[in-house]
Amino acid sequence: MSSQKSTATLRAESGQAKAPQRARGHARVAALLEAAATEFADKGYDAATMTAIASRAGASIGSLYQFFPTKDRIAGALLESYLNILAETFHKLREAAPSLDVSLLASRLTRTFVKFRATHPAFAVLVETYSFALPSTMSIRESLRREIESVLAEVAPHLAPAEIAVRAAVIQQIMKAAVAVNGDTSIASRKAVMDELEGLMRHYLQDAIQRANLDTLTSS
Amino acid sequence: MSSQKSTATLRAESGQAKAPQRARGHARVAALLEAAATEFADKGYDAATMTAIASRAGASIGSLYQFFPTKDRIAGALLESYLNILAETFHKLREAAPSLDVSLLASRLTRTFVKFRATHPAFAVLVETYSFALPSTMSIRESLRREIESVLAEVAPHLAPAEIAVRAAVIQQIMKAAVAVNGDTSIASRKAVMDELEGLMRHYLQDAIQRANLDTLTSS
Amino acid sequence: MSSQKSTATLRAESGQAKAPQRARGHARVAALLEAAATEFADKGYDAATMTAIASRAGASIGSLYQFFPTKDRIAGALLESYLNILAETFHKLREAAPSLDVSLLASRLTRTFVKFRATHPAFAVLVETYSFALPSTMSIRESLRREIESVLAEVAPHLAPAEIAVRAAVIQQIMKAAVAVNGDTSIASRKAVMDELEGLMRHYLQDAIQRANLDTLTSS
Amino acid sequence: MSSQKSTATLRAESGQAKAPQRARGHARVAALLEAAATEFADKGYDAATMTAIASRAGASIGSLYQFFPTKDRIAGALLESYLNILAETFHKLREAAPSLDVSLLASRLTRTFVKFRATHPAFAVLVETYSFALPSTMSIRESLRREIESVLAEVAPHLAPAEIAVRAAVIQQIMKAAVAVNGDTSIASRKAVMDELEGLMRHYLQDAIQRANLDTLTSS
DNA sequence: TATGAATGAGAATTCATTCAT
DNA sequence: AATGAATGAATTCTCATTCAT
């Protein structure tokens, strides 16, 4: 299935510094990652300090460095965990896609990402700061686009791959726009704008699906 | 005219620290701002150092500090100059708008911002780092949206203000999307995606204008 | 006892930044404080540099900042240690006071402070530079005056509090005068002047004690 | 007369950087000195900046440096002007001394210095910071002591010079004490303490004069 | 492994002083 | 003389990373 492949796209195997063998280690790592997430979200990548991360996690710096030998690495591990969550999310969406009508799919696509970004505010920081080597050669944006492509392929199976690629790129931008609007408190009627964006998404999906069918009909 | 007011919105008087009073000083300030732009664009706000900016401008660190007493201040001055350019650009666009057909307007809106961002890569960095106090109380995003609103008001004069605000917000997102796509080298068929976005913009503008006219007919 | 309270007056708990938790740390802190004392005494507060303090203590600048996050803080910690010594000194003096005759008390009061100031030359510098927040709300001068008051109360118990306050203020000035004379090499016959001051102190104490007794007799 | 010699003691001929030839220059110099006085008094010697002094005087730094080639020099010039005022003051006091009774003399000695220090708060700063070369080889304290000696010689002419020196040193300390008390807001009953110090001064002067006369009688 | 001390290369910023116009 | 720009050494403080116990 293409689903498996594309899930693998977001999951990466390395990145983690030293797999903690024991339960104690697992708790530590989890605490450190959470602390890092909060610090990154609060201060940004540069301003977040290793000392602050450690102390927020109730650990010593020495301990932090035991698990993550550089700042890059803890950021990388955090990003990786986010990518896993995203992969999981898209996986579910892909599975549910065939049974969803266009309207619902548009809603899911938009809201899902908005919710994810709201839940994991550090994600934005880490994506902006992709200076550290990613586990995968692919950029995050690209990985995400691939996921969208696979969802799109699910609902518009007969669309040409090139067409899918283009449409996925546009959908990705609409998703990003939704996130931006959702976070922009200077917009008076945020709700209305969000609805408008969802409408745009629906319109765009509908168009894609119809064209796909038309093409299919034509070509057959 | 609303045009005047909204142009003023983007222009601000502060930002600059100590105005140069000699010819030499003016040249220095220009060189420093340019050097800062390059450094910010290359390294990002945090990683750009005052020393690097000074030496890139061929000035001593002391000279830099003579005109810009903090890093914030030079960033602020640079941002302000960008906002002035943007204000100018929007001013022209607003003036030209009535004589443009929807297709051309869509194109102008999209390309203009893309071009601006490509020409001034430091702008993105500075907008992300708006930690330093802006001259205006309004956020940059908000100012920009206001400009878009005034252009929109020019071509769809009978649209209700609230409707304009919502539509402007969406248009702003499409403009941002165009910038993002234009800068994302991982997209294979960038050209096609750009066209698609422009199409979206055209569609959205058309819809706004038509609805405005319809509303007018209905209400009259 | 009033002695306890007034001892507490000079001792304060803050000032130190990060308490060392290892033996090595304790040694470092001691070395740093001593180095700071020497630097402050030699150069004055402003001219003493953190770098010089660190290197005089055989530590790296980072190590200094580990324990004292600002220049203020190391000065504060040093001052605090001096205040502790002074509190201790006065405590002993207060205990010994009843068994001392006026002549000896005068001598002790004068010499003690002179000796303290000679032993800790940085004290003068720090007292002059009390720009950094003191742990206590009271000024150092005031704390010292309180100590003198409590000694005076010991030897002239029947003196009215207001009278004690005034006399303590004068005694404090004589003590300061002794320090000044002792350190002024431009005075040819320093020894003679010191004796004169001690005589003044004796005269003044005697007067206080006698008046106290007279008042008591009269009022009874 | 000894009066002339000792007046010369405080007045110094050099110190000034470049005698301004014209009226304009005089005004500038006066403004600069006043600005310096305010800055030194407000911020202390180290924290006062040449730039701040110049701008407070409404002059450019270049202009400041035209008259005072170093920071030391402007401080020196200021100090010198203070010493001239003090010399003048003592000169008058010396002339008035014979016609003053002890009580009044004590009062004058005490108050005069207190007033001077209150009027010229920068004096304290400059005296503490006598790192810059003084015009005279004598320290300020020593010069002042000489002045006191000459006043004392006026009222107790038969006192042995060595005795005068010792007594003058003590009187100087009482004068300093008065200044300290006057400036210490933490003293509740400042007025009472000031009176007490004045009493001490009177007592001490009286004693000196009487002993002088006794010695004279005895030796004759 | 855990902990906290040690390190030192920068980074921002200041300011006395000198220069050119 | 006056002005303001230029200079750069020095200073405080930060922080990722390494070490020793």
Commentary on this structure:
The structure is a homotetramer of 220-residue chains. Chain A is built from 10 helices and no strands. The first copy, chain A, is mainly α. Chain A folds into 2 domains: 2-13 and 85-219, Tetracycline Repressor, domain 2 (Orthogonal Bundle); 18-68, Arc Repressor Mutant, subunit A (Orthogonal Bundle). In chain A, helix 5 (71-96) packs parallel to helix 8 (140-155) and helix 9 (161-183) runs antiparallel to helix 10 (190-219). The longest helix of chain A is centred in the C-terminal third of the chain and has 30 residues, at 190-219. Chains in contact: A-B, C-D. The interface between A and B is medium-sized, with 32 and 32 residues. Chain B binds a DNA duplex (21 and 21 nucleotides) through residues 20-22, 24-25, 28, 49-51, 59-63, 65-67, 69-71.
Brief summary of the model shown:
Chains A, B, C, D: Residues 1-23 are annotated as: Disordered. Four copies of one chain form a homotetramer. Chain A has ten helices and no strands.
Topology diagram in text:
The structure is a homotetramer of 220-residue chains.
Chain A: H1 2-10, H2 23-43, H3 50-56, H4 61-67, H5 71-96, H6 102-119, H7 122-128, H8 140-155, H9 161-183, H10 190-219
Helix pairs in contact in A: 1-5, 1-8, 2-3, 2-5, 2-7, 5-8, 6-9, 6-10, 8-9, 9-10
Chain B binds a DNA duplex (21 and 21 nucleotides) through helix 2 and helix 4.
Organism (chains A, B, C, D): Caballeronia udeis
Protein name (chains A, B, C, D): AcrR family transcriptional regulator
Domain HTH tetR-type (chains A, B, C, D): 26-86
